[in-house]
DNA sequence: CAGTGGTCTAGACCACCAA
DNA sequence: TGGTGGTCTAGACCACTGC
């Protein structure tokens, strides 16, 4: 595994560890270093480039984070096999890509009410008192006058903070909670399912009944891990898709979306 | 921002940087350190615990990776606001969770053929030669005799490697490619959509027509970023769901699935 | 046992920021 | 200008691996 020594400039503004990481990454991506093969030892690399071993370790840790190599104490550092089975989908590509595409995204408030928690909501919010009151929002998300999503959101009602008109336009559940509550949501759980529209949902979205949609249930939690917000949203299946990548990714891999 | 000095044991087998990271994480999760607040400077922390600044930096880098703090050169290190808008869904939870649940997962080969690339496939594989031949596999995934998913996979055909019976049972596209090809798939792209079953799909899965399903299109790429495999799979909407988390997560947050 | 990666130190110099 | 985080060094000792 020859490594061209020229490629590192100690006086560059680019950190040495970064240069070295990119150099090693290049060796792997070009096939010079194949999965399963060992990198030179940290001491060897340090000697080759006349740099400190700590700097070498910093470079290797970059590659480890990227999943391209893995180290084993007492044995060495080895090129990993690309993992292709853990593709992750980022849900927020959705609206972000629509904005990036230059389309105007608007939120339409269908209604905001104070409701008493029914059995389902008591369970979701892990509450005992059936008199607990919740704020209930119904909104429709549109791009260029085309309705794309229908969202139903519940948050715990506290009188301490008044509800401001501007808050209601915040399309995110966490935005609503922080605006109308003193608690800080610190974690969230989302469940993604598929379904078909009911008559009511179809009419709200202006599409046909039994049309395929994404269903996203979100639960927001505070520092004590107690639910402080819950929402159920549906996204039109003919307008939304999730894209995900995995493996040894080049930067130019991404891009592109379908707005149909 | 008081930090109890007792909590670090320099002689413990647990690394100092890890102890310190957990200590700071505890301060943040308990609310002692709130979003926006500054941590003590690295030199201060090093002095407090009489440890090296590099060790402090290692601890902080752990928290930075976890998204709990962020550093600004020349200013300091600050507690971040939890990011709740980038939930990621891991697709492979699917079959993994079914296995974890103790159910037997089986793959049924409906057919394996050599086909000539049509226009759609030529475009997908970025090929010019219309005589290019591809291997085409159709499989059904079942758990405990219930059919869950229907997969159609195409890989580039090379005579060099014979197709073995055992290879055909490998349910993953990358498994098929590596088994029947000399190229190494290094990256993958997946597109997740929703749809409803056609008559043919419904009959293969043993469910009704127009039932909601996940549609996953996967493209595998080699080192030169050329497509070497492509598949289109459908997953029953009443049996599959994706779960994702974001924010400041405690380990005990996860778990649980719906196999209906 | 020798060789590997994992941790840690006590310095150093730098780029950046705010006053 | 003084204080911050960012980088880098030249050591040290350790735990683990395989012979």
How is the topology of this model organized?
The structure is a homodimer of 260-residue chains.
Chain A: H1 16-29, H2 42-49, H3 53-65, E1 69-72, E2 76-79, E3 88-90, H4 93-100, E4 105-116, H5 119-124, E5 133-143, E6 146-156, H6 165-168, H7 173-180, E7 187-196, H8 199-205, E8 212-221, E9 227-236, E10 242-247
Antiparallel strand pairs in A: 1-2, 3-10, 4-5, 5-6, 6-9, 7-8, 8-9
The structure holds a DNA duplex (19 and 19 nucleotides).
Characterization of this structure:
Two copies of one chain form a homodimer. Chain A is α+β, with helices and mostly antiparallel strands and 260 residues long. Chain A has two domains: 3-79, Arc Repressor Mutant, subunit A (Orthogonal Bundle), CATH 1.10.10.10; 87-259, Chorismate lyase-like (Chorismate lyase, 3-Layer(aba) Sandwich). Helices cover 26% and strands 31% of the residues of chain A. Chain A has eight helices and ten strands. Chain A has helices at 16-29, 42-49, 53-65, 93-100, 119-124, 165-168, 173-180, 199-205; strands at 69-72, 76-79, 88-90, 105-116, 133-143, 146-156, 187-196, 212-221, 227-236, 242-247. Chain A has a six-stranded antiparallel β-sheet, with helices on both faces. A two-stranded antiparallel sheet of chain A has the order 1-2. In chain A, a hairpin with a 3-residue loop joins strand 1 (69-72) and strand 2 (76-79). In chain A, helix 1 (16-29) crosses helix 3 (53-65) and helix 2 (42-49) packs across helix 3 (53-65). The longest helix of chain A is centred in the first third of the chain and has 14 residues, at 16-29. The radius of gyration of chain A is 25 Å and the shape is elongated. In chain A, 32% of the residues are buried. Residues 252-260 of chain A have low confidence and may be disordered. At the A-B interface, strand 3, strand 7, strand 8 and strand 10 of A face strand 3, strand 7, strand 8 and strand 10 of B. Strand 10 of chain A pairs antiparallel with strand 7 (187-196) of chain B, so a sheet runs across the interface. The structure holds a DNA duplex (19 and 19 nucleotides).
């Amino acid at each position: 595994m020859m490594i061209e020594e020229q490629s590192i400039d100690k006086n560059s503004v680019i950190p040495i560890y970064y240069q070295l990481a990119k150099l090693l990454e290049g060796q792997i991506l070009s096939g010079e270093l194949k999965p399963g093969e060992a990198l030179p030892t940290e001491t060897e690399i340090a000697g080759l480039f006349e740099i400190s071993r700590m700097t070498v370790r910093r470079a290797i840790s970059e590659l480890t984070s990227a999943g391209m190599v893995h180290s084993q104490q007492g044995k060495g550092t080895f090129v990993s096999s690309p993992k292709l089975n853990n593709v992750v989908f980022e849900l927020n590509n959705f609206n972000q890509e629509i904005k990036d595409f230059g389309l105007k995204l608007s939120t339409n408030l269908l209604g905001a009410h104070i409701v008493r928690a029914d059995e389902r909501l008591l369970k979701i919010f892990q509450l005992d008192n059936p008199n607990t009151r919740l704020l209930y929002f119904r909104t429709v998300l549109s791009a260029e006058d085309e309705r794309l999503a229908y969202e139903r959101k519940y948050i715990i009602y506290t009188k301490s903070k008044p509800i401001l008109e501007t808050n209601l336009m915040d399309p995110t559940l966490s935005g609503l909670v922080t605006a109308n509550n003193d608690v800080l949501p610190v974690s969230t759980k989302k469940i993604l399912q598929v379904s078909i529209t009911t008559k009511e949902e179809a009419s709200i979205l202006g599409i046909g009944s039994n049309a395929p949609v994404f269903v996203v249930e979100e639960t927001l939690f505070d520092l004590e891990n107690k639910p402080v917000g819950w929402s159920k949203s549906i996204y039109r299946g003919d307008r939304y898709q999730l894209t995900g990548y995995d493996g040894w990714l080049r930067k130019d891999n991404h891009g592109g979306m379908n707005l149909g």
